[in-house]
Amino acid sequence: MVKRISMVVLCLGLFMAGSAAARDISFSSGLTQDDFKHLTKEAGTAMAYRNTAPAEPLGITGFDAGIEVSAVSIKKDGTNNYWQNAFNGNAPSYLYLPKIRVRKGLPFGIDIGAMYSYVPDSNIKLYGAEISKAILEGTTVTPALGIRATYTKLAGVGDLDLQTVGVDASISKGFVLVTPYAGAGAVWIDSKAKGNLLTLSPGLASEKLWQPRVFGGLKLTPLPLLGITAEVEYAARPIYSLKAAVSF
Fold first, then answer.
1. Can you give the chain as a three-state secondary structure string?
2. Which first-to-last residue range defines the signal peptide (predicted)?
3. Which residues contact 19 (CB under 8 A, 6 or more apart)?
4. Residue 223's Cα: distance from chain center in Å?
5. Could you give the domains of the chain?
6. Is residue 206 scored above 60 in pLDDT?
7. For residue 182, what are the CA distances in angstroms to 93, 172, 191?
8. For 118-158, what is each residue's pLDDT tens digit?
9. 199 has pLDDT over 60
10. pLDDT tens digits for range 36-76
11. For residues 71, 186, 36 and 50, what is the CA-based torsion angle, rounded to 10 degrees?
């Protein structure tokens, strides 16, 4: 059953990635500085590390491994064409990012994790890492409270150098098979043009900015080793994520 559910989520993610976002980021024309700033903000928040976990720690023997799909709307109106330029005039309505996620519990309420994403049939690759600390580990009657730091780096795109650093705080409370959680934080986005984009826009300066974000989600545990987490985040745009993971 665990394998069956995980395969369903994985196939759904790969189908969405292949059908809606299977194209390279390759700029067809130059950008103004203002357009590049908007693109940096939206691309950075889309590619930042997602939370998709309650605040309580895994514990010293805990391990969590699974697959995740995030979707962000990048549909633009006629006055904002930077996403069209980024996808060589053929931007999808949604950018889907399928990912592999792992987390390991350590002593003192600390968890560490890593993520890798590749959009099939495109040049979009992404990798990242996280570290979190439970300030309150939570009990049967009290919530858990945690803080987290994350890092992501865009790879494979010859025209754009982009990386993010995130800091978040979250709270969660388990109720039998359901654990709701919510949190807030900010993402530091560092982006600069290179390759063909720099050739098309030779005066384009790098962009460095903070973007606040809020998120909330629900983790379901239908089986002892299986967790399914759905999350909605809002930063520059709404971002929807679904994760299926095996935990022990």
1. CHHHHHHHHHHHHHHHHHHHCCCCCECCCCCCHHHHHHHHHHHHHHHCCCCCCCCCCCCCCCEEEEEEEEEEECCCCCCCCHHHHHECCCCCCEEEEEEEEEEEEEHHHEEEEEEEEECCCCCCEEEEEEEEEEEECCCCCCCEEEEEEEEEEEECCCCEEEEEEEEEEEEECCECCEEEEEEEEEEEEEEEECHHHHHHCCCCCCEEEEEEEEEEEEEEEEECCEEEEEEEEECCCEEEEEEEEEEC
2. 1-22
3. none
4. 25
5. 2-247 (2.40.160.20)
6. yes
7. 27, 7, 28
8. 998 889 999 999 999 999 998 888 999 999 999 999 999 99
9. yes
10. 999 999 999 999 999 999 999 999 999 999 999 999 988 66
11. -20
**Matching residue, tokens 């995130």:** 166
Reported residue count of the chain is 248
Which one-letter amino acid corresponds to residue 88?
N
Residue type, 151: Y
